[in-house]
Structures are given as structure tokens and as C-alpha cells.
Design a protein that fits this description.
By secondary structure, this protein is mainly α. The protein has a domain at 100-377. The chain has 19 helices and no strands. The two termini are 39 Å apart.
Length: 439
């Protein structure tokens, strides 16, 4: 009982990989608790961009239900509010899961996806009992008919691939940290895990995952040694025809791209039919079937899925969030020199959401979305803390400039300014406590 009370998020994330339905239910229960607590204490809703996005999506789903006279669309409203509750729990209770705990759960989760896929193949899932076990362990293949691609406990090779991409991004950041700090044991451990994660990504058969894996490794080399980066990038450019042939399922790339483009064109048509509120996530499949006679669960593109399911207002707001987050990340790279671990973590991981989302909508998986929402919550907290510090520093320097008539700030004032970073919640305790060193 003590570990449940002290580590509810850690338990939830471990269950997401080992017993996904239980993990989803566990985190959903935490979200309900968060909503209940907010209502009882009459706490106002946060005003961060992600919370506003959820509220706009919920309103759009209600609007779609009213316009189309489809009560079933309100299931999307409940689903969106459930996700928002979990996100708010992440945001308000970060002390239950430090960021490096989250990072390593994700890394080991990637390893588990690979090992469990090999293990589960020894057990039959043809019987009713076998299918029940497969459903609980995440090894029930959904959306595919062929079983020759790795999917582990993620139900789908594309979902598994994105979780592995996230694990690779975190692992490369940990390796970079170990090299900079000359922690050879940790470096060796990370190097031992790299081939496992890389092979798992390849075995999912995802072409997008394969390309993103190469880009992440190039980014790692760019952060480690610029000369080595340019040398390896040149070799990759020269060997690109061979690399293309080595890419998973390269022989049917053209046909797959044609199918995907057909889905995108039809998704755009659906958007123009219902541009204001969208179809809701629940209603997209039926609208697609009415248009084409084929069943497709989502638009297979992050941006198209947002526009299709929630309409133009939500879609434009989502794009604004992406642009502002990119600008904020660039600013953090320039200004936050003391916390390279945190900045590198977001630099390696956040762009993968967009990069993979261009070719597929893996956030349609509750398992994937619940893991990604935690990363987004850490990012929102980090940027809010950086804004507090930046605003304080600007005000403080103006004040000291007036006080000392343009003279330099003395050492006492500099120490006071530096102390503010240590006083921020995540610097004084938790995920950034041991990561302030520059590397």
C-alpha cells in the first residue's frame, strides 16, 4: 500500500508496458481523482496551452454532436476530458515521478517491447483464453493482419515503433550525459542497450521509424562532435541508395505511399465537409466509410487528424502551439546553459512527435498518448519555470542597473540571481536536482 501511495505514476507507467489495459485504467482513475479534487476545492483550470487545447477539443466535440444530432459523439467529449484529467494530474503531481524515472521507465519499456514480442510468440493466441491473455498483455494485433512485424505489448507495430523511438531519444541523451560526465559504467550500459532498441525499431517494419532513428543518431553526433557529425552525414548521403534498399519494406514503398496519400486526400475532403467542429475522434471512421466505402480509423497524419476530429479552430490553435514550442525550445537552447540535460531531453524527444506524426497518427493509441502526455507536462512545467526566471532576471537587471548607475552587478547580486534557479521546484527537488551541472 505504501508504494501505491508514494509512487502511483510509476506503477501506472510500468503497467502501461506490461499490462496496458490495467495501466490505462490506473491512470484514468488518477485523472478522475484530479477532476474530483479540483471540483471539491473549486480550483480554477490551468491556463497553459495544452489545457486550453483540451478544452477547445471538448467544446468542438459537443458542437459536432449538436450539429449532427449524434449523441454518440459525446463519448469523444468524455474521452477528451479523461485525457485532460490525466494530464492535469501529471502537471500538478510531478513529485510522484521524477523526470529521470520517467526516462528510464520509457527506455526499459522499449527493451520490454522487444523481449516480450519474442517471448509471446511461443504462446498461442488462437483460443479464447489465449486472446484474453493477449489483450491484457498488449500482444493482440489490432489494425493489421500480418504478424511478421514486431509490436510487443503495444497492439500495433506503428505504436510500438513510436514508443521505441521515444526510448531511443532518451537513451541517446543519457549516453551523451554519461560521456560528458565521464561516467564510463553508465556509458557502457547505454551502449549495450542501443543495439536492442535499434533492432527493435527495425523489426517493427516502420520506414518512418527507420529514418527518424538515423536522424536521432545524427543529432547525437552533432551534439557530441561537429566534425564527426559532418563526416558521418557525408557517408550517409553517399550511401543513401544502399540505405534505402536496407530500409524495412523498401520494396513496396511506392504502393504504401499511394495508399497513404489516398487516405490524406479523403481526410481533407471530410474536413471541408465539416470544417467548424470536425467529426470527433469517434465519428471519423463512420464519415470516412460514408465517403469511400472503406473503414479507416484515423487520418494517418497528426495534423489532419486534429483538423478532421476537432475542426479549424482547434487545428490552428494546435499549429500555434507547435510553432511557439519550437521557438521556446530554440530559446532554451540559447539561454539555459546550466541544464543541458533537460534541454537535450526535450530537443531529442519533442520533435519526434511531429516527425512521426507526419506519416502516422500514433497518438490515437491511448497507451502512446498517456506516455507522451507526461513528456508534454514536463515540458510545460519547464518552460513556465524558465519564463519565471527570465522575467525575474530582466526585472532584476533593470533594477540593479538603475541602482548602480550602469555599473556592473557585484558578486552578491549574481549569486542571488543564480540562487533563483535552485529555488525553482524542479531544481531544488526532483528531476533537475542532480542535473544542474553543465555537460
Amino acid at each position: 500500500m505504501k508504494i501505491i501511495k508514494n509512487q502511483p505514476l510509476m506503477i501506472g507507467f510500468i503497467l502501461l508496458y506490461v499490462l496496458p489495459p490495467l495501466g490505462m485504467a490506473w491512470l484514468a482513475a488518477l485523472g478522475v481523482m484530479e477532476w474530483t479534487d479540483m471540483i471539491k476545492k473549486r480550483r480554477s483550470l490551468p491556463r497553459d496551452s495544452i489545457s486550453i487545447l483540451f478544452m477547445l477539443m471538448a467544446l468542438a466535440s459537443v458542437g459536432a454532436a449538436l450539429i449532427n444530432f449524434q449523441i454518440i459523439y459525446l463519448l469523444s467529449t468524455l474521452m477528451i476530458l479523461a485525457y485532460m484529467g490525466v494530464y492535469l494530474y501529471y502537471l500538478h503531481h510531478h513529485e510522484f515521478l521524477q523526470i529521470r524515472q520517467y526516462v528510464w521507465i520509457t527506455i526499459f519499456g522499449g527493451g520490454y517491447l522487444y523481449l516480450s514480442d519474442k517471448l509471446f510468440h511461443f504462446f498461442s493466441s488462437h483460443s479464447l483464453l489465449g486472446q484474453g491473455v493477449s489483450l491484457m498483455t498488449g500482444h493482440l494485433l489490432l489494425g493489421f493482419t500480418k504478424h511478421n512485424r514486431l509490436y510487443g505489448s503495444a497492439y500495433n507495430p506503428n505504436y510500438a515503433c513510436y514508443l521505441l523511438i521515444l526510448a531511443l531519444a532518451f537513451l541517446l541523451v543519457e549516453l551523451l550525459r554519461a560521456i560528458r560526465r565521464k561516467n564510463y559504467k553508465m556509458g557502457a550500459f547505454c551502449l549495450a542497450l542501443l543495439p536492442i532498441i535499434g533492432l527493435a525499431i527495425y523489426d517493427t517494419g516502420s520506414r518512418a521509424g527507420f529514418i527518424i532513428m538515423l536522424l536521432l543518431q545524427l543529432l547525437f553526433l552533432a551534439k557530441l562532435d561537429k566534425r564527426l557529425f559532418f563526416a558521418v552525414a557525408g557517408v550517409i548521403a553517399l550511401l543513401s541508395p544502399f540505405i534505402f534498399k536496407f530500409m524495412p519494406r523498401s520494396d513496396n514503398t511506392s504502393s504504401s505511399l499511394g495508399d497513404r496519400m489516398s487516405i490524406w486526400k479523403n481526410s481533407i475532403r471530410i474536413f471541408f465537409e465539416q470544417p467548424l467542429f470536425g467529426t470527433t475522434p469517434v465519428g471519423f471512421s463512420s464519415q470516412y466509410f460514408k465517403l469511400t466505402g472503406h473503414t479507416v480509423s484515423h487520418a494517418h497524419d497528426l495534423f489532419l487528424s486534429i483538423f478532421d476530429s476537432s475542426g479549424v479552430v482547434v487545428g490552428l490553435f494546435f499549429i500555434a502551439i507547435m510553432l511557439f514550442s519550437g521557438y521556446s525550445l530554440f530559446q532554451c537552447l540559447r539561454s539555459d546553459k546550466k541544464n543541458r540535460y533537460s534541454v537535450n531531453l526535450f530537443l531529442f524527444s519533442l520533435p519526434t512527435i511531429i516527425a512521426y506524426g507526419i506519416m502516422d497518427f500514433t497518438l490515437s493509441s491511448p497507451q502512446v498518448l498517456l506516455i507522451v502526455l507526461a513528456l508534454v507536462a514536463y515540458w510545460i512545467r519547464y518552460t513556465s519555470q524558465m519564463r519565471v526566471f527570465t522575467n525575474f532576471r530582466g526585472f532584476h537587471r533593470k533594477f540593479t542597473t538603475i541602482r548602480y548607475s550602469g555599473g556592473q552587478i557585484d558578486q552578491k547580486e549574481q549569486k542571488r540571481e543564480a540562487g533563483l534557479i535552485r529555488s525553482l521546484p524542479d531544481h531544488s527537488q526532483g528531476p533537475y536536482a542532480s542535473e544542474k551541472e553543465r555537460f
